[in-house]
Amino acid sequence: MAMVRRSVLFEFTEDTFLGRVRAVDTRKVSIHVKTDSDLRKAKVGQLVSLKETSGVKGWLIGLIDKVIKFVSVSESEHNEKNQVSEPVPKLDNGDLVLRLEGGEDVINTVRLTLLGTIRWNAEEKGWRFSRSIVQVPDIEAECHVLVNKQLESFMNLLTTAKNPEQSLALGKYTIDESATAYLDGNKFFQRHAALLGSTGSGKSWTVAAILEKAAKLPTSNLIVFDIHGEYRNLRYARHLRIPGPEEPGKTSKITLSEYLQEVLYLPYWLLNAEEMQAMFIDRSEFSAHNQVMAFQDAVIEGKKAVLANLKKTQVLNAFTLDSPIPFSIDAVIDKLNELNEEMEQGIRGLKQGKFYGQFGRLLTRLRSKLSDKRYGFLFHAPQSEHDYDAMTRMVYKLMDYKSENSQVKVIDFSEVPSDILPVIVGLVARIVYQVQFWTNHENRRPLVLVCDEAHLYLPKKEGLNPVEQRSVEAFEKIAREGRKYGVALFIVSQRPSDVSTTVLSQCNNVIALRLTNSDDQTTVKKLMPESLESLLEVLPVMDIGEALVVGDSVLLPSRIRITQPEEKPLSATIDFWSEWLKDAAKPDFARSVENMRKQGRG
Ligand SMILES: Nc1ncnc2c1ncn2[C@@H]1O[C@H](COP(=O)(O)OP(=O)(O)OP(=O)(O)O)[C@@H](O)[C@H]1O
Ligand SMILES: [Mg+2]
Predict the structure, then answer these.
(1) What pLDDT digit, counting tens, does each position of 500-541 carry?
(2) Which ligand lies nearest to the CA atom of residue 202 in the structure?
(3) Antiparallel, parallel or unpaired: β 238-241 and 262-263
(4) What does the angle CA 347 – CA 351 – CA 353 come to, to the nearest 5 degrees?
């Protein structure tokens, strides 16, 4: 069998020579650079290559962390300053070696972090780069900078994606703008991903760029939580909208963009037992236990009645309190009211019933929630939404991937008051997850929940009320167990330090855009492997739309300039000065005030 000759990967010359290895500490390597002109070839963030231990015909790739120039002083000058009596040690080339207080020798030095290895792959008959480091370089091994043709050859290794169909083209590498940066689309979503960056750093645009690519796949399945209505103009997506407080029973005209969005009600009977308790029961009350019992009994009765009426025998035998089955909340209130006022026949005439007066507060809470306009999407859905089949229809709206433009589903939450946002986003996430969970293995299709502005509804749990805690827990469950059922989270936030740690720490791939706040930088650093910390120094100085991508979806942790999406989200930064330069119509604040009163811009 004829051996395929190895192609030559790098042709290094004097021009690319940087220096020789002087110290190795697992992934950290120090290079001794002889001359100042050699040192000038080194720049922080640049890639270098080292020969693997003699005998193994591979290359190690490193990233320059630090460039240190030795400042030479005359021997007498040095001795005078430091009052050193013993002779100063000298290097081969005559340079002085100065001992600093830290005890470290200072000569012309380049420090670098090893990133991976290039080896010949006999099966694929080509060079392959991998993130593993099996061999460290020998002392005195040559180190060359990767520039021009050398850099090109290396970038080719990264960009000739092994399997082009699995690749998600995100942008161009900052170090070589002619090379396209691909993510492995499988690995990126497999174990959750995060997109983090200060406000205006380009997160929403990056989301749109990824959605655009994903939408082109025939049966992709992504659900976007759109908190500000930024994605409502994307033409390739299906648009859903949670109705605002003024909407149930609304008679006034709806706007065009509202017309293009399907309304998504979430009727109250979708709540599970825990969510209902969190919403209606006050644990601190003396009668809380009885309240829970009576409430649950009444709900079970309600669900039973509906099932019996519809002759759903199988479900009737197996359903639980948590099962999403329509029931009448009014009947539950009537029942509780009855118990609350019940009188029994005693020996000496009528006496108060077992629960007499215990449900007063519960009833007040129930009635106030029901009349609270903000909860209209739960309690005031049209009658058709309370059909037994309504849930199936709702799930088709949310999770279909087969009809036209249904691969990306954008749910517009912009009409939802911020204080109940966590509850309802959490409810949607839980329903999607559970439907996925209960789908047979063969029919299950992977799906991604894109959580833009995640800090608003996925905060750390301290100080949350019980209802909000439930919704964060829904996401935490997905973060922990979603992988097995093909549900991935794509967390997007400008305040990573405010986002639930449980959720964020499960994200295996991170796209970090410019990040200026130091708390947030610390949070991001914690998500990344320690050896890459020096890379993160660039977080505050990156350009808009420029990102550091780390994780198993990229061959190399890299700075990438993200390609702009063709269809841009409505998040454009406002140009204050230019706007002020223009003439404008008389303001109509009366309308704004009315909108504020009715909680909707319709
Ligand atoms: N890849 C990019 N290339 C060039 N310009 C970009 C890019 N991404 C974003 N921008 C510019 O930055 C602006 C803000 O971007 P974007 O709305 O995506 O920020 P954001 O991070 O989502 O902000 P926020 O946290 O406030 O939602 C855009 O209007 C656009 O002008
Ligand atoms: Mg945004």
Answers:
(1) 999 999 999 999 999 999 999 999 988 887 667 777 888 888
(2) 1
(3) parallel
(4) 120
Residues 232, 323 share a domain = no
CA quadruple 283, 288, 289, 291: dihedral, nearest 10: -130
Same-domain check for residues 400 and 357: no
> Does residue 280 fall inside a structural domain?
yes
Question: In one letter, which amino acid is 267?
Answer: P
Ligand 1: which residue has its CA nearest to atom 17?
571
Q: Are residues 567 and 438 in the same domain?
A: yes
pTM of the full structure? 0.84
**Span 211-260, pLDDT tens digits:** 999 999 999 999 999 999 999 999 999 999 988 776 655 544 555 555 56
Distance CA 163, CA 74 (A): 59
Residues 429 and 456 grouped into a single domain: yes
| Chain position carrying tokens 């947030």 | 520
CATH assignment of the domain containing 441: 3.40.50.300
> Would you state the structure tokens that stand for residue 120, as one six-digit string?
């010949």
Burial class from Cβ neighbours inside 10 Å (0-12, 13-18, 19+) for residue 440 reads: exposed
The continuous run of DSSP H or E covering 487 comes out as: strand 487-493
354 and 318 both lie in a single domain:
yes
For the chain, give the number of residues: 602
Q: Looking at residue 122, which CATH number applies to its domain?
A: 2.40.10.170
Return the biggest CA–CA distance within the chain: 115
Query: Collapsing DSSP states into helix, strand and coil, what is residue 223?
Result: strand
Phi, psi of 138 (to 5 degrees): -75, 155
Distance CA 250, CA 253 (A): 8
Judge whether 595 lies within some domain. no
First to last CA, the chain: 75
Ligand with the closest atom to the CA of 569: 1
Number of structural domains in the chain: 3
Q: Which residues surround ligand 2, an ion (CB under 5 A)?
A: 203-204
Residue 466 Cα to ligand 1 midpoint, Å, equals 35
- Tell the residue number behind the tokens 């020998």, with chain if given: 138
One-letter amino acid of 60: L
Is the CB of 516 inside a 6 Å radius of any atom of ligand 1? no
Beta bridge partners of 66: 111
Instruction: Give the angle subtended at the CA of 187 by the CAs of 483 and 517, to the nearest 5°.
Output: 90
> How far, in Å, is the centroid of ligand 2 from the Cα of 203?
5
Last residue of a domain, one of 333, 364, 395: 364
Domain carrying residue 287: 273-364
